[in-house]
Amino acid sequence: AAQMYYDDAADLAIIQGKKVAVIGYGSQGHAHALSLRDSGVDVRIGLAEGSKSRAKVEEEGLRVLTPAEATAEADVIMILVPDHIQRDLYTAEIAPNLEAGNALFFAHGFSVRYGFVKAPEGVDVAMVAPKGPGHLVRRQFEAGRGVPCLVAVEEDASGQAWDLALSWAKGIGGTRAGAIRTTFTEETETDLFGEQTVLCGGMEELVKGGFETLVEAGYQPEIAYFECLHEVKLIVDLMYEGGLSKMNWSISDNAEYGGYTRGPRLITDQTRQEMRKILGEIQDGSYAKELMEEFDAGKPTFTKRREAEQNEQIETVGAELRPLMSWLKA
Ligand code: NDP
Ligand code: MG
Ligand code: MG
């Protein structure tokens, strides 16, 4: 079984004795920074001079410096800017200001796993990765609870990197819920695989395939939207609460039988074969290389796909239907 750590395995005093820099103040950045501050930690934020996030930081009364200045001041530096930005920001502003005895922290292993960030000798490299979006992480902390998180140590130069990582996890409420021990490699590869095949890539194509099949066969797009997109949430909520068995217990026997007999005709050996291929591209680094090249080139494919999606019928129909659901506030 996975190794778990709770509050009693973590000493908050360790992180309270460090100068902390949080680089970036977006989804994860604001959650880590504010909860650490509330846990009695000395936190400063690193943001570019013209950054849009600066005003929000100042509203909270936190100090904001450039990423270079924040790194130079701090003992523990957590990088919470988007993954594809980390390589260049690290090279330009963070690496020159690191010294032996510092610790470099991440909330996702991507940059370290694929060698885009290489810490110098004598620097600890660790991860505290909440398994939820930053706004949930912050809200749970404020409510006296926490979001489970993954912890990993890639470089333990000080011999104290695990205690430091667990102390950070405690400071953001993670060990209230439970911290699970993993490695940078496992976290990165499973995270990418999950989003590509199931959560984002797989789900989106499944929803679109169902919607388009019904519309092509002459059914009303509004009905197809409800059936193939809107109701996904009802099913996912049941799985989230009680696994596949709660979902199958809650739906009708008719739906359950239809699912058991038709689902395997869609997700076939061929689909699983493709999943293995996608996993291979994650493991051998070719996906990471492709992503960085795409962003280096000004993200042509990304932008084209994002624009095309806005014009798809499922999107235009959905935009007309969602105002009917008063509980869905923008
Ligand atoms: P965000 O996209 O929310 O980060 C945005 C922040 O980064 C803003 O403060 C932005 O500043 C700043 N930023 C963007 N570009 C630069 C730059 N070139 N130089 C300096 N600052 C910059 O990131 P997330 O919080 O989503 O992700 C951060 C890390 O956390 C990633 O490693 C991600 O994989 C991981 N993670 C994210 C989760 C999530 O739910 N979002 C969940 C678990 C892990 P500005 O205001 O100027 O744009
Ligand atoms: Mg991810
Ligand atoms: Mg139905």
Automatic annotation (TrEMBL):
What is this enzyme's EC?
1.1.1.86
User: Locate the KARI C-terminal knotted domain: which residues?
Assistant: 183-328
Name the needed cofactors: Mg(2+)
Tell me the Gene3D superfamilies matching this sequence. 6.10.240.10, NAD(P)-binding Rossmann-like Domain
The UniProt annotation places NADP(+) binding at 25-28, 51, 53, 134
Cofactor note as given: Binds 2 magnesium ions per subunit.
| Reactions performed catalytically | (2R,3R)-2,3-dihydroxy-3-methylpentanoate + NADP(+) = (S)-2-ethyl-2-hydroxy-3-oxobutanoate + NADPH + H(+); (2R)-2,3-dihydroxy-3-methylbutanoate + NADP(+) = (2S)-2-acetolactate + NADPH + H(+)
The organism's superkingdom is given as Bacteria
Give me the residues that bind Mg(2+) 2, please: 191, 227, 231
Q: Which residues bind substrate?
A: 252
Family in the record: Belongs to the ketol-acid reductoisomerase family.
> What is the purpose of this protein?
Involved in the biosynthesis of branched-chain amino acids (BCAA). Catalyzes an alkyl-migration followed by a ketol-acid reduction of (S)-2-acetolactate (S2AL) to yield (R)-2,3-dihydroxy-isovalerate. In the isomerase reaction, S2AL is rearranged via a Mg-dependent methyl migration to produce 3-hydroxy-3-methyl-2-ketobutyrate (HMKB). In the reductase reaction, this 2-ketoacid undergoes a metal-dependent reduction by NADPH to yield (R)-2,3-dihydroxy-isovalerate.
Tell me what this protein is called: Ketol-acid reductoisomerase (NADP(+))
Q: Which organism is it from?
A: Nocardiopsis kunsanensis
Q: What is the lineage of its organism?
A: Bacteria, Bacillati, Actinomycetota, Actinomycetes, Streptosporangiales
Q: Which gene holds the coding sequence for this protein? A: ilvC2
